[in-house]
Amino acid sequence: THRTMDPTATRRVTGDGPRRLGFASNFLLGGVCAGVFVGSFDVRAAVRFFPNLGFSFAFNELFKSTFVPQTDGNKVPSIGGYFVSGALAGLCAQTLVEPLEFSLRARAAALNSNKPMISMAALASGGAAGIARDMSLMITAGAIYRGALFGLYESLKPAINPDINKDTAGIWPRIAIGCVSAVLSFVVAGPFYVVHSQQYSTPSRSSYLSAIDCARHIVRSHGVIGLWTPPQYRPRPIALVFALYTLATGAALACFDSAKREALSSPS
User: Can you tell me the distance from the alpha carbon of 210 to that of 143, in angstroms, rounded to the nearest whole number?
Assistant: First the structure.
């Protein structure tokens, strides 16, 4: 008797399904894209951005396969799914890299005050409880920022340019959308980073009772706009360097998206 084979079963056996890059490949690709754009104006910062954005991009691709529904290998538009996967990616990535970034912040504080790094870290952050508060604030900020960044990027792509996912669209529309998404994401998550910088990186950190108290002090001293201007850049009319970091993040996301599509579309 003639038996008809289920085509989906063939796909499962042969692996002829939607292709995806592995976690390690996404991490390296995302890290390289971040290093190129950030390293173009700050080589030292590129060393920090490589693992941070590399893990963010890799975790985002991992979580998208769970929270963004697919039909025949094509992602179905799901704004909520993009924001959730992005937030989880930011949470995981920032949790992994935060010990490294905290040690770098403690080292910078020690160099600026001529005190040993370990004792300065404890003094600056109020002991173990202060270190936990320091890290938790940055992890929260990372989750909110990455959720907004990935969610806005994926949502704005088809809204601004319906042909954005076609190979003929080119990289420049993606870079433009990536930069817009990064700026809007900083509008959402920027106050978390600024409050953290004000609370733990300035001599007056001991005068703040909490993050909310610090935010109130910033608003009283610098106006509402101060919540989006890190203390080290407030003397300047425009925080050009900080803006470059934001735009570089958006450009790195667009570069990663384009390079990933190119890798997946190439013959295996």
Answer: 20
Residue 209 per-residue DSSP state: S
Report the alpha-carbon distance of residue 249 to residue 30 in Å, rounded.
Answer: 10
Separation CA 94–CA 146 (nearest Å):
10
Question: How does pLDDT run across 185-234, given as a tens digit for each residue?
Answer: 988 888 888 887 777 655 544 567 778 888 888 898 888 888 887 766 66
**How many angstroms separate the first and last alpha carbons of the chain?**
36
- Measure the CA–CA gap between 193 and 195, rounded to whole angstroms: 6
**Each residue's pLDDT tens digit, 3-27:** 444 443 333 333 444 567 899 999 9
Q: What is residue 253's three-state secondary structure?
A: helix
Model confidence, pTM: 0.76
What's the CA gap between 92 and 90, in Å, rounded? 6
Q: Rounded CA gap, 177 and 86, in Å?
A: 16
Residue from 191, 27, 22 nearest 97 by CA: 27
Per-residue DSSP letter, 232:
G
Can you read off the two tokens belonging to residue 85?
């996967």
Instruction: Using DSSP, state whether 236 is helix, strand or coil.
Output: coil
Residue 166 has a CB neighbour count (10 Å cut-off) of 10
What is the structure's pLDDT at 267?
A: 64
